[in-house]
Each structure stands twice: as structure tokens, then as C-alpha cells.
Automatic annotation (TrEMBL):
InterPro entries: CheY-like_superfamily, Cyclic-di-GMP_PDE-like, EAL_dom, EAL_sf, Sig_transdc_resp-reg_receiver. It comes from Halomonas koreensis. One of its GO terms (molecular function) is cyclic-guanylate-specific phosphodiesterase activity. SUPFAM superfamilies: CheY-like, EAL domain-like. It is an enzyme of class 3 (hydrolase). This is EAL domain-containing response regulator. Residues 140-390 form the EAL domain. PROSITE patterns: EAL, RESPONSE_REGULATORY. Keywords: Hydrolase.
Length: 400
């Protein structure tokens, strides 16, 4: 990796020069340089030429809308962050955010006009003023042969996102998250390498995650800590009959710790009947199926009808704006009510502000997880967390 550094640069695409000037001043206060584009057709060329860390853009301008620009940024594989200045109905901004994420862009939560410095600072919390110079835009960060060596050298490992029971206030489970312990780049998140996996490597990774997670769960159980274990599976995984035997054998080796397989609600399944068969066989074995990111796809109710679901996970995009957006609060409350009526758990993801916990509990959510409670951690740290003081004991009092 190149060790040199350069100031963070933001490219601003906005048809209102006054708004662009105000934004430039605010970014300068935060230590970010800006270059201004008034027309969409100039933006991609500037992005390719200058490699900005951030693109800030409106959604409605000139003869080309912001959604079309997002597609052009994705086509040139822009690796930086994208911040939308909505100025439009919130639902439209959310559609643009979801589309950008689906296209592989690193989307920040959109910012309403007029912009406020405190909100802009919060949005850019993870954007360093000085960042290492990365690879050229469009160049994949790693090669297929490196991934093959990662499997051979067992560099793919797991961290665990803790999950807490709102009723008992204690650690109740963990979600297994894969990491790549790269010998040069350090610990890499899934987004840095999962898109490069071939189908065969994807199946190999699923087996690796299952084996590692079940071994860790067995170790916790031997130490007197029994936690539910959640792990993500793809639609292809769920349509593989061999998954049943693989999971069942490993599950029995852990002593029967609760095991939950999460399917992403936005994922498509080519064969609903086959996936339902596999899910049913897992359920008959005593395992559970969860729907992740619930509420952001279009097949939610159909998925609930077809699969033996034990858990819904409310997407973080709704939880993060619980106190700010009445529509988001209504969606969370409705999902929690649906879960109660169906007799299944409802997990709120993305909890960062503990002040939202009383409201989530009042709505009927049963479990919570998020960086405000605990960040993903190695298996060795889970026992200390389970035996220590619960982060829920730090919760702020409810307001109003």
C-alpha cells in the first residue's frame, strides 16, 4: 500500500451556486478541500482525474437527475463516499441511497437543505482529513489469487457483533461477521473482498464461517456461556441441500446452542420452492431462519408466508432516525407489532444512540444490536462481555 497521503478532497455537484458556496465553507471548516461542478457531465471526468474522497451532490439539477449520476459513478467504480443533498421528498432520497448501495457505492445518509455544520460533521465522522492514497479509481484492491491464498493460509477469520435481550438486559447472542486478516493491509471488512468471490469461493467461505463459528460457540458453551449464534447465508446457500447436513453436523458438535441463519431480505431467490424446502428441513432439525434488513425489500410479506421465519431484523436505516422521522418510527413500530402477532423475535439493528432503547422496547422490539452497545469483536472478547456489566445498564433516560 502507498504510504503517502493527501488532503481529503470533495467534489461538489450542485446547481445552486449559493448553496455550493455555503457547503464549501462548511467543508473547509472540517478540513476538506472542495472543487465545484455545476453540470453533471463534468463530474465523472473530474472524479476520474482527481480521485476525490467524497462526492457531494444534489438530486435535482439541470437536464440530468442525481440518480443517473449515481449510475455513472458506479460504472466508473468510484471508490469514495457519496453524500446526497436531498432537497426532495425523503422517500425519493431514500430510494437514491438504496440504489447507490445496490450499485456498490459507499453511500452516506443524505443531508437535507439547508445544510447545518453539526449535521455535516456527523455525516463525515468516518472521513479522515488526511487519508492514504489508495489505488487508482476502478482498480480492484485485491486479486483472485490472493483470495485463494487467503483460504489456504486460513486468513479468513470471524468477529462477532453482540446482540442484547431488552427484557433481561443481558448479552443473548452474537452475529458472525467474516474478516480477512490480510498480511499487509491488516483486518479487512467484507465489502473489501466479498464482491470478488467466485461462486465456488462463496460456497467455500460459507463452509469456513460455519466451521469457525460453531467451534467458537462450543468454546463459549464449555466456559458456561450459552449464546445464540447468527450467521448470514446467501440465497445460493439456502438453495443448496448439502447445507442442511453441514449445518446439522456442526450444530450438534456445539452442544445444540441456538443457531440462526440470516437471509438478507433484499436478496433474490431463483427457486422459492427449493429454498423453502431447505429452510423447512433446517427448521425440522431445530435450527432457525431470520430475515435480515427487514423492510427495505419488496418481498417481505411473501417471504414471511413462504419460509418458517423465527426472527425479523429491522434495518438500521429505520432505527437510526427513530427520533427524527415519524415515518421511520411508524415502520419500526409496525414491524414490531407484526413480530408480536406472528410470535417471533424482532431485532433492531444499528443502535448507536442509547436514548432510542426505551422507544424500541415500548414498540415491542425484543432484541437490539449496534455500535452504541458493542462493536464487532474477536471471539476471545465475548466471554468478558458476557460476564461484565451490560451496556444496556448505561442507557440514557427516555425523553418525553
Amino acid at each position: 500500500m502507498n504510504a503517502s497521503s493527501s488532503p481529503a478532497l470533495a467534489m461538489v455537484l450542485e446547481d445552486d451556486p449559493d448553496a455550493a458556496a455555503a457547503l464549501a465553507v462548511q467543508l473547509r471548516v472540517l478540513g476538506v478541500e472542495t472543487r465545484y461542478c455545476r453540470h453533471a457531465h463534468h463530474l465523472v471526468g473530474e472524479v476520474l482525474a482527481r480521485g476525490p474522497r467524497l462526492v457531494v451532490m444534489g438530486l435535482a439539477f439541470g437536464d440530468q437527475d442525481g440518480i443517473a449520476v449515481l449510475r455513472r459513478l458506479a460504472e466508473c467504480r468510484y471508490p469514495g463516499k457519496v453524500l446526497l443533498l436531498s432537497g426532495v421528498e425523503r422517500k425519493v432520497a431514500r430510494i437514491a441511497e438504496r440504489l447507490g448501495e445496490a450499485l456498490g457505492l459507499d453511500m452516506l445518509a443524505s443531508l437535507d437543505k439547508p445544510m447545518r455544520l453539526a449535521e455535516l460533521r456527523q455525516r463525515l465522522g468516518d472521513l479522515d482529513v488526511t487519508l492514504p492514497v489508495g489505488p487508482e479509481p476502478g482498480a480492484p484492491p485485491f486479486r483472485q489469487d490472493e483470495l485463494e491464498r487467503a483460504f489456504e493460509r486460513q486468513e479468513l477469520t470471524l468477529h462477532y457483533q453482540p446482540q442484547f435481550d431488552l427484557a433481561s438486559r443481558r448479552l443473548s447472542g452474537v452475529e458472525a461477521l467474516v474478516r480477512w486478516a490480510h498480511p499487509e493491509a491488516g483486518i479487512l471488512a467484507p465489502g473489501d473482498f466479498l464482491p470478488l468471490l467466485s461462486d465456488a469461493q462463496g460456497r467455500q467461505l460459507t463452509r469456513r464461517v460455519l466451521q469457525l463459528a460453531m467451534a467458537d460457540a462450543a468454546g463459549w458453551r464449555q466456559a458456561g456461556v450459552n449464546l445464540s449464534l447468527s450467521m448470514n447465508v446467501t440465497p445460493d446457500d439456502l438453495m443448496c441441500p448439502a447445507l442442511v447436513d453441514l449445518v446439522r453436523d456442526g450444530w450438534h458438535s456445539t452442544g445444540g446452542s441456538p443457531l440462526v441463519l440470516e437471509i438478507t431480505e433484499t436478496s433474490s431467490m431463483k427457486d422459492e420452492l427449493l429454498s423453502s424446502e431447505v429452510a423447512a428441513r433446517l427448521h425440522l432439525t431445530g435450527l432457525e431462519v431470520s430475515v435480515d434488513d427487514f423492510g427495505v425489500g419488496f418481498s417481505s410479506l411473501a417471504r414471511l408466508q413462504l419460509l418458517p421465519i423465527s426472527e425479523l431484523k429491522v434495518d438500521r436505516s429505520f432505527v437510526s432516525r427513530l427520533h427524527e422521522d415519524v415515518q421511520d418510527a411508524a415502520i419500526v413500530e409496525s414491524v414490531a407489532l407484526l413480530g408480536r402477532r406472528l410470535g417471533i423475535r424482532v431485532v433492531a439493528e444499528g443502535v448507536e444512540d442509547l436514548a432510542c432503547l426505551p422507544l424500541l422496547e415500548r414498540f415491542g422490539c425484543t432484541h437490539v444490536q449496534g455500535f452504541g452497545l458493542a462493536r464487532p469483536m474477536p471471539a476471545a472478547d465475548i466471554l468478558a462481555l458476557a460476564r461484565g456489566r451490560s451496556p444496556l445498564d448505561r442507557e440514557a433516560p427516555a425523553a418525553g
